Amino acid sequence: MKRILNMTLFGSALAGGSTWYFTLILLAINPQVVCLECANNRTFNRDRLLNTTTLKKPESYVNNQTKKTIYRISKISTSEDLARFNRMVKYAREEKLSQRSIGEIIQAIANHFIGVPYKAGLLDRSIDEKLVVSLDGFDCVLFVESVVAIARGIAMQDYAYSTFVEHIEDQRYANGKINGYCSRLHYFSEWIAENQKRGTVQNITSKLGGVPLNKKLNFMTKHRYSYPQLANNEINYKCIVEQETKLAELTINYIPQNQIKSLYSQLQPGDIVGVATNIDGLDVTHTGLIYRNADGNLGLIHASPIGEVAISYDLHRYIRRVENAIGIIVARPIDPRQVEKRRL
After folding, report:
1. In terms of pLDDT, which residue wins out, 38 or 272?
2. Are residues 19 and 8 in contact, defined by beta-carbon separation less than 8 angstroms?
């Protein structure tokens, strides 16, 4: 833990607040280190900030509803993203994925992204908060968000790209609406809690025998100068301070590492996994989705910071190899079809 925190500070001094560089250093030292950038609020490289523009879309695709949506999105969303989305929709229709369980839909969609490159800091390439959508590169949280968002639409047989984008916004921001940097759900425990309130996921960690994490979440403010949106913005900084204070009221449980293997029979494909850590001030260092292999063994499909979206064959073995990992937090996506039935 001490070595990682020291490297964090070193990276900040070296690159003017960039944790992107210290991640590369850590990976060079130990390829099993999981990138803090994923679940640590998507820190980024200040030197690679991009100006964002509206998305230019082939006229053959754009309809009025989609046009209203895509012009609110960062340039990170491209015509290639839209083409990939359309291919997945075609596949979902052909395979009748809407007739499967939400977990099976999630795994089927996640499979489509195997080999897509890991890209750090996509959400933070603009000083102004943008609704970033990317299907040709992910950090670990963006991968989880994107797969779950697509699966929710498929389950409801709503194949519109605009619906997918709305799901991304709903999952990523407090109260489901983008309203500046501070509205983003930066800590993954907060992401789970907010999405549980909206009926998107259920935190099942306690039901699986989870124990209290017992730590204060304040990594962002303790490392303020690793975050350009905080380093020189007092309003953002004070807002994050307030958010971290509120998070003290949140009960965070995790499943200890030595108990993971015994819970395989209770886990399902598509369950969302956060890798709990002993790093001071931080809850989770990495995220992914439970994956059922052909032989029935449970692994993890995730956007790996050492390369691309890939499947780690055995969940427990993978977690054991993650530096500073102490266990997992598990949230189960709620089938939107069940929510709709209850409303009716």
Report:
1. 272
2. yes
Which residues in the chain belong to E strands, given as ranges?
A: 201-203, 211-212, 253-256, 272-277, 284-292, 298-303, 309-312, 325-333
**Cα radius of gyration (the chain):** 19
Residue 280: pLDDT above 70? Answer: yes
Going by C-beta distance under 8 Å and a sequence separation of 6 or more, which residues neighbour residue 225? 12, 17, 231
Is the CB of residue 195 less than 8 Å from the CB of residue 128? no
DSSP states along 240-256: HHHHHHHHTTS--EEEE
Q: Cβ distance 260 to 328 under 8 Å?
A: yes
Reported confidence tier of residue 68, pLDDT bands at 50, 70, 90: very low
Closest listed residue to residue 271, CA positions, set 339, 197, 203: 203
Give the pLDDT confidence score for residue 271 in this predicted structure. Answer: 98
Q: How far apart are CA 330 and CA 193, in angstroms?
A: 12
* Cβ pair 25, 7 in contact under 8 A: yes
Residue 164 tokens read as: 């997918």
DSSP-derived letter for residue 223 is T
The tokens of 266 are what?
A: 């209770």
How long a stretch of residues is the chain? 344
Tokens of 180: 């500046």
Distance set, CA 301 to CA 140, 312, 329 (Å): 10, 6, 15
Which tokens hold the place of 334?
A: 């709620």
Q: Average pLDDT of 172-183?
A: 96
This prediction's pTM: 0.81
Phi, psi of 110 (to 5 degrees): -60, -35
